[in-house]
Amino acid sequence: MDKTLYILEKRGLEVLRDGPSIWIMENGKAGRRIPARLVSHVVIIGNVKMDAGTITLFTDNNVPVTFMSKNRGEFAVTIPHNHHLNSHSEEQKHLLARDGNIQRYNQWLQAERRRMQLKVVKKLSRQVSSIFISKGFGEQEYKDFITRCASVGKKRWRIINETVKNMLNEMVMKSILASDLDPHIGIFHRRDNFGFALDIMYAMEPEADLQTIQFFKSDKNMELLVMTSTGLKLTGDGMRDVALRFENKKKLINGLIDVVIDDFFAIMRTIRSFVYDDKINPKRFLKS
């Protein structure tokens, strides 16, 4: 089932593994048992007390687990350990074999990002999107437009934007693993851990910009992101607002991620045909 399990830091909250399920205990409340088979995404926010078996239960079921802070935008992710190479690892490595392949890939990735940016601009302003379509736009023009749409401080923006990005990253990672792609073989983010996941996230980031703007439009009284003794922090209601908006768009987001990954497979097929032709007629490849 395509259900996301959000576990938010609370005093007296503890999470334990109970066979094929997890058991969530909270002071003054009856415990809840959640079968792992019903969960496809796991997001843990803040300092949650849990046993290691909880993590391995999900990774054993091919479900990545994302850990997020409540106020700094930091995150970590655990993924299933695969004793064998991902089935498309070698094909991904072929993209790194020639400068022409790398250039084509980077151009494709920039085009995917630009396509996502234009979707966001259309959602926020038909007038600006018409100008961008007719005259073209660059990265700075897009950033300037987003800044005008969300007149909030950089710290407030970063906390919400990073929170949404972390949720997006979890979905990207899940899709990559389901496609038997290697999440580490990136090109735009070459030599980075989870380089390919970062590449796909680069294309998907505008969706996080849109949801961040929508958050601040809903939080007109500035009550969901508050200043505490440790700095700015999302309240429980604020986290629920972010999560609910994200969940309502998850089907759409899955479709957007699938389109990007399907396009990547199309590029790999093209590269594979060139590699085959190169073995037969090297001169043709050099001319191209």
Topology:
Elements: E1 4-8, E2 14-18, E3 21-26, E4 29-35, E5 41-45, E6 49-50, H1 52-60, E7 65-68, E8 75-78, H2 89-94, H3 99-124, H4 126-135, H5 139-149, H6 154-178, H7 195-218, E9 225-228, E10 231-234, H8 236-248, H9 250-280, H10 282-287
Parallel strand pairs: 1-5, 2-6, 5-7
Antiparallel strand pairs: 2-3, 3-4, 7-8, 9-10
Helix pairs in contact: 3-4, 3-5, 3-7, 6-7, 6-9, 7-9
| Major β-sheet profile | 4 strands, mixed
Would you identify the CATH architecture of the largest domain?
A: Up-down Bundle
- How many E strands? 10
Highest CATH level, the class of the largest domain: Mainly Alpha
Binned strand content: 15-25%
Strand order of the largest sheet: 1-5-7-8
Rg calc: 21 Å
- Average pLDDT level: 86
Query: What's the N-to-C terminus distance?
Result: 46 Å
User: What count of helical segments does DSSP give?
Assistant: 10
Q: Would you tell me which CATH topology of the largest domain applies?
A: Four Helix Bundle (Hemerythrin (Met), subunit A)
Shape, per Cα inertia axes: flat
Q: Could you spell the SSE succession in H and E letters? A: EEEEEEHEEHHHHHHEEHHH
| Unreliable sequence segments | 275-288
Total number of domains: 2
The class by helix and strand makeup works out as alpha/beta
What portion of residues is helical?
A: 55-70%
